[in-house]
Structure prediction request, 490 residues.
Amino acid sequence: MFEALETGKALSNEDFQTLRSQLRPALLAEQFKLRDQPYPALVLIGGMDGAGKGAAVHRINEWMDPRLIETSAFWMHSDEEESRPFFWRFWNRMPRKGRMGIFLQSWYSRPWYDAMEGRLSKAEFGDILRDIEAFERMLTDDGVLLIKIWLHVSRKTQRLQLTEEAPRKQQNPRVPADADTWWKQYPDALTASEQLIRATDVSHSPWHLVEAEDRHYRDATVNQIILASLESRANTDAPVRTGIATTPDSRAGQPTLLDQVPLDKAVPKDKYKEKLTTLQSELQDLSWQAFHRRRSVVAVFEGWDAAGKGSAIRRVTTAMDPRLYHLIQFAAPTDEEADHHYLWRFWRQIERDGIATLFDRSWYGRVLVERVEEFARPDEWQRAYHEINQFEQQLLDHGSIVLKFWIHISPEEQLLRFKSRETQPHKQHKITDEDWRNRDKWSAYEQAVEDMVSHTSTAQAPWHLIAGNSKHYARLEILKTYCKALKAAL
Prediction:
């Protein structure tokens, strides 16, 4: 694969300056056009150590307006990053629509080094690369212009670079590296690089391979690739991918999964407080054990309007030390949130190891309210099932405990609670015109919930359908389930 990248490509200083005078204004023009586009551009710079990745990024920022570029280097990881799932650090640096981001080192770097140094088998590396390819497809499906550039140098050139013995004009300023170690590992690096590129060089996010022996040729080529990618995308409509078939009309009026939830379940008042105290005491102890074992909980609370999510969450948080959880309530996305992938705002909230993150409404809005209210196109909410499963699997792989609750009530019970909210001054803020509109779409939401459960209830992250006509019963069931999951994980 790499023989074609060791042919001696080079540019004279005169030719380089000529190209620079042509490329720079063209790049700036496309960069300013990008500001008005409904998508971001993300440039990944990867390749061999000593290939000049940092110098190439410097040149990009020199020829374009750096105020419109966010450059992120992931070569050093903080303990804050290490105590969260792997992709958290990248989601936090994703550019918003109309902006460009450059990742110097990316989600490829760590697995590539691990494969090169033998910490991952070929099969294990392949599994990770398949996950990365699926992650990149999720980004490009959402509209991200993903530009992946791989810089290659020969074994001889790499050694000269790392020992700072290359001709001065070709040297790349960098943190000193162990040249002898790299000399020995170079064949393994080539093997890992070839596997990486072959597994992830796909139509929606192809690799651009660049011979980096000559800095002039390298820098000009990198910027030509970025320019061509920006021009091509600006002149081409983003492909709309279709997912599973839309919900057939024949399901209308048929029994649903929610019909099986036993809404007559209740608990005697005289036993409620006793059981509540016992379960909260148990949860308090388990939460501290989870903290000391560095096991995080990611808990999702969904359900009908007026189903009692808030009161159930309060019974959970009352049992926990406030230092051990973070509760977030989500509504419609802000302008900044809408300028990113819908998962961005949730990824950013994931807490460190040992801390619980509780979501009052969550990423499932994509396949519920956004589906029913047609805020998302059918192809967008259809592919969200896979994207959500992938997201939750990444949380699980990191060691998090994922809990998902849907609190179900009957339409009759909801109506009683709506009317109660209208008449009680301290609850009137809880009822809105939107709540009444949603009630008119009960059947559509039932079908959406059934599809959500069938596509996203997995062995490691199942949905728990909680009978909520009795608030006391629902609170106890959620606490029981929460404690049971913690005990099993610990």
Q: What stands out?
A: The chain has 19 helices and ten strands. The chain has two domains: 2-234, 253-489. The CA atoms of residues 187 and 479 lie 55 Å apart. The longest helix spans residues 269-292.
